């Protein structure tokens, strides 16, 4: 090749390489982030807590390299701080963070900065004005209140406290003292006997405390407003030989060798209140403001008690965070060095590219630079993988927390079951003694009644605790159905009429309208209104008055239900605690568990409503439940609403009612019928056997597998089974019994401590014939068994008979006969209407809904809806005998919305499905 051609080829290749390199350099864009200047005016930086605040700021600022941060220390001088803030304003900072030395002197200069459009973040101590952009700091009143509650618990509700406060007039000292006194006011046995004012430093306490301790040798505990003063108190107590008797509680809870967490772990302090410096939160809030992102104006930092139970964990977490922060800093330094290296390489690359036309070896150098970039990229990818691994670890921790929450709920559920089992063994014999015609003396009967009432009271407390835990972990779902709120509240009030009448209390019901349709969960609102009415009855004196009113508010789309009493009212001291769990009024002579109102509030909020109250001492109280008329679709259901729970009232407490006993139906097989008892608790198993053996033959099993085997071998006439069994649960036992043709006909009575409605539905759906909740009435269980056996004996004859569509109830008077005849005619004329309502029937009879309800209740002892349902199901038995009609056609002819609802209703009434009924009463065609 000629030399000129070689040179041209060489120059062409160099130009091509230069063009490609320049093009690649032009495509590499560097993201430039906007620079900000933040000024921080600190009142002092001379103590560990303030240094921790600054360290937190610097740690958070490491994520924002574009921010220039300057801190000026006023050294506890308000005048110096004013001058420093003015300097920041002259320098033109983009945002100002101020930790005021004193509120009033600093307020004017902060307002000036705010009015000039400079965002101001107030940190730790507040100013006297609301003209600031955001506030970050702890709630000193809450710190004092939590400390007071912890001290009262630590002293067992009785002891003497010495308080070491901050400087006189300092807002943190005032707020913490106020919170402490508020908390101690609820515990009269704990007294605040002396005070010492320090200046937040240890020497001030060492100078003053010895004389105060000599003047008050009865001191049991010292509460210091920070850990430094608490350390001074410990040194004085140690000098005077009081370190073992006098406990010390501080505030701050800083990590490190000289922090409160280490003092707690070393036994110097009994506990310390966590008071976060808030440095990280201040920078996060500032960056949200600068980046124009949503932020909260008030950012209150939470607090907690750090004692020997959690100090090691807190210390470990602090060390882990410090280690992670150091790793992050090292990674950032490495990344910065890599960026510097990359920038230097870019510079060298440009120089080399400029000299490419004169040097043949430039391509090799460019290749080496490319290799270096690849190494940097791989290093960055490894760092991204580490960050992803940390994120996955956080997800795992969140999942672990969810699993622990589920474990808590299972623990409370099992704990409730364990409590219900001994209650069964208490209430069972007591009920039998009270109902048996034995020669009990009046004092003995009185004592047994006292035992029964208190055992039932304990059962109610267990149920309320279960509801509390369900609300706490979010396991109580809302299943709202549409219904008439007026009728619902009226049914609950009916329970209270007798005890109110016995005490001469006037119980008034004032609905604004006879019918107020509303979407609501019967199970939830039943507990809310029952607790409010029970509370009103408890505090209303004899011959007083309770008024329940219902008022729709169309403008707000809500309904208000108020319960007003004429009791003694609620004192100012009790009002702020009235909805707290387990709180009992200080001045009231009537004491309860302290759960009723708290449970009502939690359930009302769960129902997306509000519970408020007003009270005038000496005149009474009014509790108002405000409910939305419409609920989100996720909270509603079209399933039939469960009936409200029945309750019995006496002069001592409100207790779950003992179910009414059905009339004894002699089966004629009492001595021959075989009953199988499956119960894992040996005492309950023996108790059931003892009560059933005088009337039936009894076999027992202590687990589900043995029970299934005995059932298949002996084919008993009836099985009594517990739900919670080892290995195979009671629900699985029922499912297997109903799935086996040998045992599918055997009636099963389920006994359980699981009282939730959805759990009862689950038991019935599994195929149980009767579902009894522990503790149960032994007599009721015995009569229920006799009834089930009697029904089973007559079942074939019952299924072979054809029933008339006329009602079986005969009214005692001619007027009532005509009323029932008209009512039956109207219902039968509208059987095909699925939307037939109680209001439609009342309108056809020319009376109001309330009049119709009371009339049917008085004549038939049942509700109008049940009466309509009974006629439809009776008519269904006749139509099912016609082979030309399908079951679905029968369902729609009788006004059922769906065939499945018809089948469910038919089985609930007659214990067989429509198809089974038809198979028993029709002959297949040849």
UniProtKB/TrEMBL annotation:
Domain Histidine kinase: 414-631
Record-annotated Response regulatory domain positions: 674-789
Keywords, ordered alphabetically: Coiled coil, DNA-binding, Membrane, Phosphoprotein, Signal, Transcription, Transcription regulation, Transmembrane, Transmembrane helix
Coiled-coil stretches: 373-400
Listed InterPro entries: CheY-like_superfamily, HATPase_C_sf, HATPase_dom, His_kinase_dom, HisK_dim/P_dom, HisK_dim/P_sf, Homeodomain-like_sf, HTH_AraC
Chain positions with 4-aspartylphosphate modification: 722
The enzyme's E.C. designation: 2.7.13.3
Lineage of source species: Bacteria, Pseudomonadati, Bacteroidota, Cytophagia, Cytophagales
PANTHER family (UniProt xref): HYBRID SIGNAL TRANSDUCTION HISTIDINE KINASE C, TWO-COMPONENT HISTIDINE KINASE
Parts of the chain that traverse the membrane: 350-370
Name the UniProt record assigns to this protein: histidine kinase
UniProt cross-references to PROSITE patterns, sorted A to Z: HIS_KIN, HTH_ARAC_FAMILY_1, HTH_ARAC_FAMILY_2, RESPONSE_REGULATORY
Example of a GO MF term: sequence-specific DNA binding
Signal peptide feature range: 1-24
HTH araC/xylS-type domain location: 821-920
Gene3D superfamilies assigned: 1.10.287.130, 3.40.50.2300, Histidine kinase-like ATPase, C-terminal domain (3.30.565.10), Homeodomain-like (1.10.10.60)
Entry annotated with the keyword Heme: no
Reaction it catalyzes: ATP + protein L-histidine = ADP + protein N-phospho-L-histidine
């Amino acid at each position: 090749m000629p030399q000129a051609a070689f040179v041209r080829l060489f120059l062409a290749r160099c130009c091509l390489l230069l063009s490609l390199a320049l093009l690649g350099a032009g495509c590499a864009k560097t993201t430039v982030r906007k620079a900000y200047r933040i000024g921080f005016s600190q009142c002092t930086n001379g103590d560990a807590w303030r240094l921790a605040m600054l360290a937190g700021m610097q740690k958070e600022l490491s994520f924002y390299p574009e921010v220039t941060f300057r801190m000026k220390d006023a050294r506890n001088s308000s005048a110096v701080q004013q001058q420093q803030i003015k300097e920041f304003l002259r320098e033109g900072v983009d945002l100002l963070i101020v930790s005021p030395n004193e509120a009033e002197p600093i307020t004017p200069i902060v307002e000036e900065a705010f009015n000039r459009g400079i965002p101001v973040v107030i940190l730790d101590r507040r100013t006297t004005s609301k003209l600031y952009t955001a506030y970050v700091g702890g709630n000193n009143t809450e710190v004092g209140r939590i400390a007071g509650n912890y001290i009262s618990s630590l002293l067992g509700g009785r002891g003497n406290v010495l308080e070491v406060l901050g400087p006189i007039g300092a807002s943190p000292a005032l707020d913490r003292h106020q919170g402490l006194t508020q908390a101690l006011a609820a515990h009269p046995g704990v007294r605040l006997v002396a005070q010492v004012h320090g200046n937040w430093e240890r020497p001030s306490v060492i100078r003053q405390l010895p004389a105060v301790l000599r003047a008050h040798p009865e001191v049991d505990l010292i509460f210091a407003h920070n850990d430094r003063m608490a350390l001074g108190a410990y040194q004085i107590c140690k000098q005077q030989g009081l370190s073992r008797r006098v406990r010390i509680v501080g505030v701050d809870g800083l990590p490190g060798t000289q922090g409160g967490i280490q003092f707690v772990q070393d036994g110097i302090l009994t506990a310390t209140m966590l008071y976060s410096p808030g440095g990280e939160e201040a920078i996060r809030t500032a960056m949200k403001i600068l980046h124009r992102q949503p932020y909260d104006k008030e950012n209150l930092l939470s607090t907690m008690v750090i004692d020997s139970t959690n100090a090691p964990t807190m210390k470990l977490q602090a060390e882990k965070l410090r280690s992670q922060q150091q790793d992050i800093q090292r990674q950032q330094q490495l990344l910065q060095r890599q960026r510097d290296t990359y920038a230097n390489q870019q510079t060298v690359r440009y120089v080399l590219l400029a000299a490419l036309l004169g040097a043949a070896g430039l391509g090799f150098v460019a290749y080496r630079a490319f290799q270096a970039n690849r190494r940097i990229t791989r290093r960055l990818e490894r760092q991204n993988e580490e960050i992803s691994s940390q994120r996955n670890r956080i997800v795992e921790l969140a999942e672990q927390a969810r699993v622990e929450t589920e474990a808590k709920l299972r623990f409370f559920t099992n704990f409730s079951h364990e409590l219900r089992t001994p209650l069964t063994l208490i209430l069972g014999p007591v009920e039998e003694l009270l109902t048996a015609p034995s020669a009990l003396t009046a004092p003995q009967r009185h004592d047994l009644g006292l035992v029964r009432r208190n055992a039932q009271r304990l059962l109610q407390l267990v149920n309320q605790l279960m509801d509390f835990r369900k609300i706490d972990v979010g396991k109580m779902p809302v299943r709202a159905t549409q219904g008439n709120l007026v009728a619902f509240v009226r049914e609950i009030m009916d329970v209270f009429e007798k005890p109110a009448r016995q005490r001469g209390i006037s119980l008034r019901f004032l609905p604004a309208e006879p019918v107020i349709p509303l979407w609501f969960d019967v199970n939830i609102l039943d507990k809310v209104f029952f607790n409010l009415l029970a509370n009103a009855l408890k505090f209303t004196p004899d011959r007083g008055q309770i008024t329940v009113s219902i008022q729709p508010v169309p403008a707000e789309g809500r309904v208000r239900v108020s319960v007003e009493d004429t009791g003694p009212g609620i004192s100012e001291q009790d009002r702020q605690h009235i909805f707290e769990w387990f709180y009992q009024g200080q001045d009231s002579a009537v004491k309860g568990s302290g759960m009723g109102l708290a449970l009502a509030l939690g359930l009302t909020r769960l129902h997306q409503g509000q519970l408020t109250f007003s009270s005038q001492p000496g005149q009474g109280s009014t509790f108002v439940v405000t409910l939305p008329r419409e609920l989100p679709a996720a909270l509603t259901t079209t399933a039939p609403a469960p009936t409200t729970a029945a309750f019995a009232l006496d002069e001592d407490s409100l207790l779950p009612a003992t179910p009414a006993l059905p009339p004894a139906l002699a089966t004629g097989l009492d001595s021959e019928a075989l009953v199988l008892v499956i119960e894992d608790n040996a005492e309950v198993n023996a108790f059931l056997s003892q009560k059933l053996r005088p009337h039936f033959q009894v076999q027992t099993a202590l687990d589900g597998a043995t029970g299934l085997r005995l059932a298949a071998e002996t084919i008993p006439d009836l099985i009594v089974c517990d739900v919670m069994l080892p290995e195979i649960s009671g629900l699985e036992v029922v499912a297997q019994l109903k799935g086996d043709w040998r045992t599918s006909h055997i009636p099963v009575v389920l006994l359980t401590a699981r009282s939730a409605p959805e759990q009862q539905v689950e038991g019935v759906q599994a195929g149980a014939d009767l579902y009894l909740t522990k503790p149960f009435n032994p007599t009721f269980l015995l009569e229920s068994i006799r009834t089930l056996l009697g029904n089973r004996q007559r079942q074939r004859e019952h299924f072979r008979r054809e029933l008339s569509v006329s009602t079986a109830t005969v009214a005692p008077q001619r007027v009532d006969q005509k009323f029932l005849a008209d009512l039956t005619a109207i219902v039968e004329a509208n059987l095909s209407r699925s939307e037939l309502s109680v209001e439609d029937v009342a309108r056809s009879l020319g009376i109001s809904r309330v009049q119709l309800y009371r009339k049917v209740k008085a004549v038939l002892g049942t509700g109008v809806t049940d009466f309509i349902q009974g006629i439809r199901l009776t008519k269904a038995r006749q139509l099912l005998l016609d082979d030309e009609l399908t079951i679905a056609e029968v369902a729609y002819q009788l006004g059922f919305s769906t065939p499945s609802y018809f089948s469910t209703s038919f089985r609930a009434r007659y214990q067989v499905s429509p198809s089974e009924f038809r198979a028993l009463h029709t002959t297949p065609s040849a």
